[in-house]
């Protein structure tokens, strides 16, 4: 039963990846071009998430101080 759930999850992830390829038109690229594009995308998203994680608390506290919600 666990193997069946794993197979179903793998099939679902494959379907999502196929949809991603179709929506972004990456299916037209060669495999190495697709790898470069996906690597750049993951890097940019990772940097954006890290930057948000590091700097958002400071900005939120500044906003809360500005509106005098926090003293």
Automatic annotation (TrEMBL):
GO biological process: ceramide biosynthetic process; intracellular protein localization; sphingosine biosynthetic process
Name of the protein in its database record: Serine palmitoyltransferase small subunit A
Keywords assigned: Endoplasmic reticulum, Lipid metabolism, Membrane, Sphingolipid metabolism, Transmembrane, Transmembrane helix
Record's keyword annotation contains Transmembrane helix: yes
Membrane-spanning parts: 12-29, 35-56
Cellular compartments per GO CC: endoplasmic reticulum membrane; serine palmitoyltransferase complex
Membership in a protein family: Belongs to the SPTSS family. SPTSSA subfamily.
Lineage: Eukaryota, Metazoa, Chordata, Craniata, Vertebrata
Membrane topology: Multi-pass membrane protein
């Amino acid at each position: 039963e666990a193997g069946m759930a794993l197979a179903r999850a793998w099939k679902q992830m494959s379907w999502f990846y196929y949809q991603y390829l179709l929506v972004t038109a990456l299916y037209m690229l060669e495999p190495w071009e697709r790898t470069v594009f996906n690597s750049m995308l993951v890097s940019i998203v990772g940097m954006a998430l890290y930057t948000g994680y590091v700097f958002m608390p400071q900005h939120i506290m500044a906003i809360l101080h500005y509106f005098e919600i926090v003293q």
